[in-house]
Amino acid sequence: MKKIISLLLIFTFGLSSCEKDDICDANTPTTPRLVISFFESRTPLVPKNVINLKVVGKDSPDGKGIVFNTSGDDTTKYLTNANKISIPLKTDADSTTYSFIYDSGNTNPAAVNTDVITFYYTRQNVYVSRACGFKTIFTLNPSSTDPVSNPFIQTDPAGDGIWMTRLILQTYNIDSENEAHIKVYF
Amino acid sequence: MFLANAQETSTKAVTKQPAQSKPKTEAAKPAIQEVRPDSIKTDRYGLRLGVDLYKLTRGLYDKNYKGIEVNGDFRLTKKYYLAAELGFEDKTTDDVRLNSSATGTYIKGGFDYNMYQNWLDMENLITIGMRGGFSTFSQQLNSYKIYNPNPYWGEQPAIIDGQKYTGLTAGWIEVTGGVKAKIFNNVFVGFGVQLKLLVMNQKPSGFDNLYIPGFNRTYDGSFGIGFNYTVSYFIPLYKKKTIIPVLTKPAPKK
């Protein structure tokens, strides 16, 4: 009898320690973003901050850039001066195109430089938990000439030259945001 | 004054007398009860078979649920009952980000201990017990949503999947508490609650067991809960006479 009652007690304590699992915890790793870090091109080990970089997705739903600074106003919240950015890839398509506008908002039009990069990848949907559902992880396409395949293609439709002089892929697998996937030298 | 004093002493003397006589009657009582035929009680032993009305009726108002559970117990001793449940469940779980269906059968076996001291020929039960449970089932992932904390490209609609995971098994132990009351003849109604601990859970690769027939919904840990409401019929098989030992034992010591 006493054993049964003590067992019952253990059960109820165990139940009360259960965590609420209806809300997806923000710390749970879910769909990762593409992480790009910037470096000084002459001294490749030194991280370099960008100046008022604005990143706008091609055909994005609201036509605006990625919000880097939530506390900023209508102009400054889309700008970053950090040496590392994280940009979301489309989870319903196998490519995503972004415009990287350097020194956006500068009154001198010659200072503004826009590079366009399209990322090509394959997607995989992975189960996370009841509360979070699934996440999408990405694998950038391999570099090969036959068949033609590229992890990304950099273009300069604005004709102002490229400011990202060198892009070095660190990993093809984008399954977490822990480390930079691409290093950019400029 | 004298009169008053005299009266007080006299009343004291009167009250003392019944007090002294009390132990005598108490000592005499067990001796009388030993002979009384009321102290010999017949207990009926047999098989009780029932059905879980909660599972049965839930299908009427919950379109995502179909289930049935039959349960039975067999009286082993005065207090202990062998108990078992057998069931089938088909449940569609609609969470915010996932919609999945689990279908399968389960069996539970164990014992119940009756804590209730019945008067005369009453046969009610207040039980605590334990069960081991085992389920074989399949799961179908109907649809899911991608969780994206940075919905720059907009929230994606739910993706229809339809992947079926078969041959899944799970095992658990549970502690049960319940009440069964005889309402007429051999018909009993009762309800019970179960606290469950998952000990074996074969998860499908790339998905999780969100609902296990017999265990009910799973949580992050390995605990679960259950509830049943049963109507059962008692089939008497044989009788045993028991002498109530509570009152007769202390008599010879005194």
Measured by DSSP, the beta-strand proportion of chain A falls in 25-35%
- Please tell me how large the radius of gyration of chain A is: 22 Å
Largest interface: A-B, 42 and 33 residues
Shape of chain B: elongated
Average of the residue pLDDT scores of chain B:
83
Helix fraction bin of chain A: under 10%
The stretches of 5 or more residues of chain B where confidence is low (pLDDT under 50) are: 1-33
Number of beta-strand segments of chain A: 11
- Global morphology of chain A: elongated
Strand content range of chain B: over 45%
For the largest beta-sheet of chain A, the strand count, sense and barrel status come to: 7 strands, antiparallel
Explain this structure to me?
The complex is a heterodimer of chains A (186) and B (254). Chain A is mainly beta. Chain A is built from one helix and eleven strands; from the N terminus they run αβββββββββββ. In chain A, strand 6 (113-129) and strand 7 form a beta hairpin. The longest helix of chain A has 15 residues, at 2-16. The model of chain B is unreliable at 1-33 (pLDDT under 50). Chain B has 254 residues and is of the alpha+beta class. Chain B is elongated, with a radius of gyration of 30 Å. Chain B has helices spanning 2-35, 53-61, 250-253; strands at residues 40-52, 65-75, 80-94, 98-114, 125-144, 159-184, 187-201, 211-212, 216-217, 223-243. Chains A and B meet through helix 1, strand 6 and strand 7 of A and strand 5 and strand 6 of B.
